[in-house]
Structures are given as structure tokens and as C-alpha cells.
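Appendix B, Record 12. Input sequence as logged:
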Amino acid sequence: MPARQLQEDYYYEEQPAVRPAIKPAPRRAPKNRPHINSNLRFRIGVIALALAVTAAVSVSRTVISATRGYELVQTQNQAAQLEKENKQLELQIAEMRSPERIKNIATNDLGMSVPRDVYFAAEK
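Logged structural output:
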């Protein structure tokens, strides 16, 4: 048997191309930004908050006024209804007290009669 021959494979490796080093861009000096006045920002925030609170109070007062107005109208309607009912009851009371009604009940239901002669006593 023939002896095995050891073959070596030669690989060709390509060397990477040398790239020139990229220099970082020089840092620019920060632009001069206008200075924000934090005190002014705070004052504007306080004013905005005060306006919001004022608006909320105004709206709540309007809602309360409207609600009370509706309650007042409802109370007035109830008062008018009670006055109407009171007048009807006063009319019923007047009908119950009428002499004709009392006379009819006395003669028809109780069996009483009207006297023929009426005597009056005079005081001296």
C-alpha cells in the first residue's frame, strides 16, 4: 500500500486594505443660546395657575347659580300647586258648612223636622 501523502493545502489569505484612520470631527463650541430666565418662567407658571383657578371658580359659581335657579323654579311650582290645592280645600269646607247641606242632612238622615213656630226671647 502506498503511503499516504500528506498534502498541505495552501490557502491564500488576502490582507485587509489599510484604511486611513478617520479623525473625529473637531468639536464645535456650543452655540450661544439665549439664557432662559427661570424666574420669569416661574412667574408665568404662577400667573397661568392663578388664571386656571379663577376660571374654575367662575365656572363652579355659575353651575351653583344655575342649580339654585332650577331649585327655585321647582319650589315656586310646588308652592303654586299647594296654593291651588288649598283653595280647593277651602271651597270644600265652605260647601260642608252651607246651611242647606246641614238642613238636608238633619231632615233626611237624622229624621229631624223644621219647627212650625219660631219663638224669640227678648232681653230686658
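Helices lie at 38-97, 99-109.
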